[in-house]
Design a protein that fits this description.
The chain has helices at residues 6-12, 36-47, 67-72, 90-102; strands at residues 21-27, 52-57, 60-63, 80-86. It is α+β, with helices and mostly antiparallel strands and 114 residues long. The protein has one domain (21-106): Histidine-containing Protein, Chain: A (2-Layer Sandwich). It has a four-stranded antiparallel sheet with strand order 1-4-2-3.
Length: 114
């Protein structure tokens, strides 16, 4: 039976790569709040990334990859949320999700036709 080399023991005990956590405050600017359509867009975008995405608001934390979790935030227009991303692509994920809020999820204000 071969003895393990010091290198293999060191590798086995090596700490896992450190996961970076980044966060950003966003404001729900959609007049109807974070309703089903934007929650779906947000969850779809979050699922594109390897990182864990969470939204925090009103003392609640929601999984950004779950539409149902996002809807439980009941985020009305003007609600401030903190988006947190933790993982290897956290910065890119946060930028993409922040962009959805910046663009109002592509909903134009007053776009309802009569």
């Amino acid at each position: 039976m071969a003895a393990e080399s010091p290198e293999s023991l060191h590798d086995a005990n090596a700490a896992p790569p450190r996961e970076e956590t980044v966060s950003r405050e966003v404001v729900v600017a959609i007049s109807q709040g974070l309703h089903a359509r934007p929650a779906d867009l947000l969850a779809r975008e979050a699922r594109r990334w390897q990182s864990r995405i969470e939204l925090v608001g009103n003392s609640q934390r929601a999984d950004g990859k779950s539409i149902l979790d996002l809807l439980t935030l009941a985020a009305e227009a003007g609600t401030r949320l903190v988006v947190e991303a933790t993982g290897p692509d956290a910065r890119e994920a946060l930028e993409a999700i922040g962009s959805l809020f910046d663009r109002n999820f592509n909903e134009s204000a007053g776009s309802q036709t009569t």
